Each structure stands twice: as structure tokens, then as C-alpha cells.
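#structure-requests
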Amino acid sequence: ASIARAMSATRARICVTRAQSRGWRAPRRLARACGAPVRAEVFDCVLVDGRVCAVRDVTRDDDALIVAALAREDAEDGVWFEDDAAEAFMVTREACVVVPSEYSQRMQRDRVKNPHGEHAEDCWIIADDDAGGS
């Protein structure tokens, strides 16, 4: 049974490597299952020096990311939003650790900026243990 598991992990690693070399986005679950590095893409969450950030763009040469800091609106839930007080900044891929997250949008709660309820804001759902509890 352990040989079969090792063989399937090896096949998964080959599949992920082949997909990434062709510029395709390998399935996240497959990459994590076989221990392959997960490349950060736009709308992913990453940890940069202990701060939770969202990837906003990738540079043309694909070695740096433009990220924006995230903050929690309410300490009780795992929903994170862009920190309006922080500016976006550039970091290398090596300085980032991908955090398992789910990208979503919700209606802006600020009734002054959104009086009719038609504007959405980006949000990310992250489990507390995945974000290091910060």
C-alpha cells in the first residue's frame, strides 16, 4: 500500500511540474497533496513578513508579486478585507507563503459610499490557524 501511495504521489508531482512548466495553473489540491510548491496567483492570499496580504498583480517576468495588506473587520470571523490605510507593495515570490483562502465579494456595508447597495468589495475567507492568528 505504501508503494502505491508513493507511486501516486510521484505521478501527482510529475503532473504538477509539467503543468507549471507549461504555464498552466496546477490544481491546488493536487499540488498540496504531493508537497509541490504552490505558486501564488492573482487573488491568492500570502504571508509576507507575518502580514496577511492579497496578490493584486504579477510582474511580467513572473518573479515578483504586487500585494496589498489585508485586515479583519471583525476579530471573530475569518473574513479579511483590503486595508485602506496601507499601500500596495512589491515582493519576490520567495518572500511569500501561500495561505489557503477563498476569494469572494460582498456588498459594501458603508451606506455613504454605497447608498443603493450595488457596489461590492473583495474579501477573503481564511481560517485563523492558516493566517497564523494575526
